[in-house]
Amino acid sequence: DAGVIQSPRHEVTEMGQEVTLRCKPISGHDYLFWYRQTMMRGLELLIYFNNNVPIDDSGMPEDRFSAKMPNASFSTLKIQPSEPRDSAVYFCASTLGAENTEAFFGQGTRLTVV
Amino acid sequence: KQEVTQIPAALSVPEGENLVLNCSFTDSAIYNLQWFRQDPGKGLTSLLLIQSSQREQTSGRLNASLDKSSGRSTLYIAASQPGDSATYLCASFPSGTYKYIFGTGTRLKVLA
Questions:
Q1: What digits encode the pLDDT tens for the residues A37-66?
Q2: Inter-chain contact A93–B44, Cβ cutoff 8 Å?
Q3: Chain B contact present for A56, CB below 8 A
Q4: How far is CA A11 from CA A52, A68, B109, in A?
């Protein structure tokens, strides 16, 4: 398996624009996580899914953020409208689930909102 | 609420030295603890996963221990090399949840 795949790797957008980040988890993994990493706050969990269903979205900062998982092999994190303070690296991770909780991370998307 | 702390925040050592990175967590009711490595501009690479029933895990020059009662884990790196330079993150997996809580990391630099 190629691991967790995220796209794009880098995104630069203007304030107010919509941004969509994409993630393909490892095949067969039942859990998918979206994290945000900044220098000030470190790694923060935004939301996670189990079998495509959102379980905990308490980390989503505002209504401007939304995430979907239409099928087992694809998830999106959308920010609309984007703001400069959303600039961060966004990571997607997946785990097999049940008793196997070893997390595997993608390479991240570096988002810059100007 | 689980909080994870890593000390030191940064560490610089000469090549060949054995070193210990520390991770502490406030809630001892964890399912497991995982150590990761992050290179600049890269994602997180899993190093070691310790289940709550285990005391330690080893992989090559790395050894991670877990003491749930004291809320501590350590990552021991033997005979450090310049290629070990990276940020090391620990993450606890509290019982009753299904999510990792990360520490802020230790930035390691091994000097040749």
A1: 998 899 999 999 999 999 999 999 889 999
A2: yes
A3: yes
A4: 25, 19, 29
